[in-house]
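Before a colleague's protein record goes any further, I have to sign it off. Would you go through it and say whether the fold makes sense for this chain? Take the sequence as given and treat only the C-alpha cells as open to question. The record follows directly below this note.
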Amino acid sequence: MSKPAILKVKGDKIVDGQGNSVLLRGAGLGGWMNQENFITGYPGHEFQIREALDEVIGSQKAAFYWDKFLDYFFTEADATFYKSLGLNAIRIAFNYRHFEDDMNPRVLKPEGFKHLDRVVDICAKVGIYTILDFHAAAGGQNIVSTSRIGSNLSTYLLSLTSAGAY
C-alpha cells in the first residue's frame, strides 16, 4: 500500500498530492500521549498519576512503565484494525510534556518523538492519515482539565470513588 501524502485544502475540499478529493473518516487516539481522566477513568490528571507512580515504584521503574505504555498502547495491529473499519484518519492528541520538561525548557526530549514518529509511520504504512493535535501546550491554554495544568481536578471521579461506585 502506498503511503498517504500530505493533505491540503483547495477551495472547500481536502485534497491529496495529486489534487484528488479526500474524505476523511477517522477516530481519535485518546488517552495515549495526552491522558485525559474523562477518557482513562483515572481520578486525576496525568501529572498526578506520574507523580504517584514515581513515589510508589520509583522514578526508574516509572519511566520504564511509561515507555512501555507508550509502546504497547497503539501497535500496527491496531492501525490495521482501524483500516479494516474503513477509517483513513487518526487524530493524535499529545501533551507537550512528552517533548519538553518544565524544568528544562526549549530542550527537546527525543523519546517523545520516538513514540509519536512510530505511530505516524505505522499509520502511514497501512494507509491512514494522521492529524497531529498539540492538545496540551506548556502553561496550559485554559483552566479546564484538558489543558493539563492541574487547576481543574476530576472531582466527579473522586466523589464516585468515595461513594463506593468503583
